[in-house]
Every structure is written in structure tokens, then in C-alpha cells.
Design a protein that fits this description.
This protein is α+β, with helices and mostly antiparallel strands and about 240 residues long. The protein is built from four helices and eleven strands. The protein has a seven-stranded antiparallel sheet with strand order 5-6-11-7-8-9-10, with no helix packed on it. Helix 1 crosses helix 3 and helix 2 crosses helix 3.
Length: about 240
Amino acid sequence: MLTRKQHDLLLFINERLKEAGVPPSFEEMKDALDLKSKSGIHRLITALEERGFIRRLPNRARALEVLRLPDSMNQAPKGRAGFTPSVIEGSRGVKPEPAAEPARAEPKRSAADVEAGGAVAIPVMGRIAAGVPISAIQHQTHTLPVPPDMLGGGEHYALEVRGDSMVEAGILDGDTVVIRRGDTADQGQIVVALVDDEEATLKRFRRRGNTIALEAANPAYETRIFSADRVRLQGRLVGLIRRY
């Protein structure tokens, strides 16, 4: 769910709030994480806020509130072990997510079953390790039968969406998006983008000269702009599945 740096910063902020009652300064956070500039801290705080772990309080300098901690912070760590991040985050909600139920294995479908049912089975890549592109994932949680007319040509995978950053594009928390694997996209398409080889996000793609803008479909979130060399596209949205 979080990268190592995001995890370390959240832990540092939480410990400082417990000890002093006030959050650390950006300079203190930069030194604690051994970063060269405060811009890296701004990016980490934005990512933590999008994922619903912290909140910046308006009209107050240095005002940060920890909303929740990952479950792994409540477990005895081995050394400084991080944790496996979920793909596609972006919630600003203040309520902790309920503990996830153990995944139930779905019955395997043979090629004949898939063909007979008129559907194509694609892998659901529910989780990725920090810093590993989707193209390098070897493990899948399960497969999902998808109507072939949703796919077209190419290779596809599915992702489980968490968060509200794309609600105005009709993508809600709990939806499953179908992604066509690829490293290019047209202006305005919704893509899976990997930022700095460590953060996967679902956003609308815009290229502006030598920069790439990743736009949320929720006015509560700012458009994030990166130099083109910091962003790698992992695929574009071709379908959405919602269960009621």
C-alpha cells in the first residue's frame, strides 16, 4: 500500500505527534528520511494524503493529522520491513478501512469453460511490490472472466480500485478496471502510470511539452505534473466492472 519512504515518513510524523504534540517541520522530515530537498517531502505527503493516511489542516502552518496507520505498523516488524502496496490508491476518506477478509480462491476455469461461456479470463493484479512495474509481476490473485468485446486486441489485466480520486470519471472505490497493457496513450485517456518506479496510480494522461500531467477526476485533488522521464505508462483503461 505504501512505498518504503512513504511508510518511514508516516511513522516519523506519527511518533513526533505522540512525543511533542506537533508535527515535524519539512526540514526535520527531510533530514529524517535523508532526502536532498524538501520537494521530495511534498511529494510523499501528497501521496499519503491521497491514500487517506494523513490530512493537511487548512489555514494552519505545519498542521498535519494522522488519520490511520497501516496494519503492518501494529505488528512487530523484522528490522525495517516494509509492506506490499495495493495498486491504485487515492482515498482522502477519514475512516479506516475494515480489515480485509481472506481472499477466497475462485474455481479454475479451463479453456473450454471460458470459450463456452463466451468470456476471456484475464489476471487480476491486485497487489504489486513497491518499485516493481506491473510488467514484472509474476503473481496474480485470481482471474476474471471478461466479455471479449470489451478487450479487443493486445494483452490485458485487471486492477481493484481503492479511493475516490476518479469518481467524476465514473470510477468508484471497489470497482475493477480492465487495463490494456502498453506504454503509450493519447491525450485525455485514463492510464495506469508508474511514477519514479515506486508509485502506481490511475489518472487521466496529458502530455505538456517535456512534462506529463496526471489528472484526477475529483476536484479535491490537484493535477500532478512530472518530467517525462519520471513517468512510465503501464497500460490504459478499456473497461470497468462493478458489483452491486
